Amino acid sequence: MIHVHPVERAWIVMGAVMLAVFAAAVFTSSLMGGIALPVPEAQVDPRLVATPGATSFGEPGLRELAPGQYEARILAQTWAFTPKEIRIKAGSKVTFYFASKDVQHGVHVDATNINLMILPGQVSKLTATFDEPGTYNFICHEYCGVGHQTMFGQVIVEP
Amino acid sequence: MRWALRSAYGLLAVVVGGTLAFAIFQPVKVLPRISLAPSLWLTNQDQRSLTSETLRGQIVLYNFTYTRCGERCAAQTSVLRALQQQLADLNTGSVPVRLVTISFDADHDTPAVLRGFAAGVGADPGQWEFATGDAAALKRAVGGGFQVYYAQAPDGGFEFDPALVLVDGWGIIRAEYRTAAPALDRLLRDIRLVAEEASNSAGVGRYAYEAAHLFLCYAR
Ligand SMILES: [Cu+2]
Q: For a Cys staple, B174 with which of A7, A159, B31, B54, CB 3.0–4.6 Å?
């Protein structure tokens, strides 16, 4: 029998209780459905998402919001991004909106913090500033079928 | 020793239980703090300056349009007119609520034109203001700040995505409605929530609201 000092035992019990409570908290909140991930920006009907006029992804592409500030709406489908190329000037700030027309996709834009899941029915949004000229590839990183490896695009940042 | 330990456990249980209960039952609902609203430097229909600073401490619902928009914008205008009527009955405590319609057609929509338009839609000048400003600054604030896309078409009209934005008294964007005609009861509910938060956030109540933000107790 190992001897444990009562105070030490008290701390061990407290630690164990807290772990149990955190586990219970994660479990209950996931069951309650109240979890709000910071990523999904809005809901969109995947059956209508590619229909021109029905949603803002009907005509995907790049739009200038203000000088040096853009929004890019990119539609993901098996196995392509539309548009697959975006051209901007160095120093531009781009807010990306992604939506899926069919299955679950993902996206990572090179050298940025943009790393998202693209879930059918959800709009995913993140912003990045491109200071350095160059070509930034973005790839689908959620396996989405036999053509998955061909699913990519490019942000071309001109000097 | 014994009782000290017991009361420590008891305290821990109360804190943890209370936190869990708060997160699950969400007794306080808030709207998310989306981002800081852009600073504005506008001129209103009475040629007075209307800035984000003069609007501090007031809940402001912004919408973006131009007076020559016509039929396409009629639905939004009628929602705002209905909202203005409902706001008269809504008790928002000491927090004033204001509607601000920003025109991005600075060349055509002079204060005189805006005044005529305001009268035409039945706006109460004390509650609902119409404003415009320098084209480049507008583009930065409305396009860049509120992220509302608009561009002038060759015929002089505007191509734009309809949007309304709710900004609280601290100058923080709390809700965005990217639709031509949002539901009136949703607008009223959101304004009520922001007003309640502003008037109940004094003293200890503030911690309840901060906890609601921390646990993402967002009204759906
Ligand atoms: Cu994919």
A: B31
